[in-house]
Design brief:
By secondary structure, the chain is α/β, with parallel strands linked by helices. It is 45% helix and 14% strand. It contains nine helices and ten strands.
Length: 316
């Protein structure tokens, strides 16, 4: 007897392995997945400009990075004793204007290089709801707690997002034609927008993504994070205390589905080795000076040296 419906996911023709160079952009769920890549010691960069929720914000930052369109002083504004930019997450805000400019322009150069080198770029969209700055008439990535009367809230249409997603694909493919693109939709519930509004938002994202490209396309894949949460994990016990974000059990399960469909079998074997090392590193002895613990430490060092001989980029 089955108690859940399993979302079918085909195996990628171009799976991720330990030679892959991964760049991720998107919502907080993108960071959940990136933390897994970090734990298993893949070559991974996630959200260099902070969490980004909607297609236009992600398109804007990828466009700036690819075109090396450096930030200028006139694009910054001072609020609550810090300098900000509406295209960036508040994590990058800074009380010193010069320091902020140096930091974000250095990130642009670094991200440009990472996109050029990437074998896989993963983009996670979270919402279709956006805020438009009344003064500039531009959609922002982050309001930085500026009073809401400075913005108009609107729901992006399917055609608006279709255009934005296609622009993003064109930018990346022109810069790095061999890169594999993986798109997904965050399962996080944006209930501050409203219950029906959240569903409309996710529905628009799904339609826009599936109308932009054929999901059977070998170099552009859709990974069904949202559908797994809604269909396989249809229970509040898979949410955190806020009942909005997937809890660790759900994140671990979605990661398992991602690995089985998007990671090579050889890499999965290496992941098991890495996980064994990570478990050993977290071990705490009651008697660190004992002979058995010293032997354990020597064996652990041998394991690390062995795997680093094959993958020198790994750091434990």
């Amino acid at each position: 007897m089955n108690f859940t419906t399993v979302v079918p996911i085909s195996k990628s023709k171009y799976p991720i392995d330990y030679q892959s160079k991964i760049v991720s952009f998107g919502s907080c769920f993108a960071e959940n997945m990136a933390s897994k890549f970090d734990y298993y010691k893949f070559q991974n960069l996630c959200n260099p400009f902070g969490i980004l929720f909607h297609p236009i914000a992600i398109e804007n930052i990828i466009s700036r990075a690819i075109n090396l369109e450096l930030f200028e002083e006139k694009e910054l504004f001072f609020y609550n004793e810090r300098w900000h930019n509406f295209d960036l997450h508040s994590d990058l805000s800074n009380p010193d204007k010069a320091d902020l400019l140096n930091e974000i322009n250095h990130l642009l150069v670094t991200t440009n290089k990472k996109i050029k080198e990437a074998s896989h770029i993963i983009i996670t969209y979270g919402t279709s709801w956006v805020y438009r700055n009344k003064e500039t008439n531009k959609v922002v990535a982050n309001c930085h707690k500026v009073p809401q009367n400075n913005f108009e809230k609107e729901l992006l249409s399917v055609s608006d997002m279709d255009k934005s997603i296609q622009n993003t694909i064109n930018l990346i493919e022109k810069e790095n034609p061999n890169c594999n693109l993986i798109f997904t939709i965050s399962p996080v519930r944006h209930l501050k927008d409203g219950f029906q509004e959240n569903q409309r938002s996710k529905a628009n994202l799904i339609v826009a993504l599936h109308s932009t490209f054929d999901i059977r396309n070998s170099t552009k894949r859709y990974f069904p994070s949202y559908e797994i949460m809604m269909d396989e994990l249809r229970d509040y016990r898979f949410y955190g205390e806020d009942l909005l974000h997937p809890n660790q059990v759900a994140i671990d399960y979605i990661w398992e589905r991602f690995v089985e469909s998007s990671v090579s079998n050889a890499a999965i074997s290496t992941m098991n080795e890495v996980e064994a090392i990570q478990r050993d590193l977290s071990h705490r002895s009651f008697n660190p000076s004992s002979e058995s613990y010293q032997k354990f430490q020597t064996q652990l060092e041998d394991k690390i040296n062995k795997i680093k001989s094959k993958f020198p980029f790994m750091n434990f």
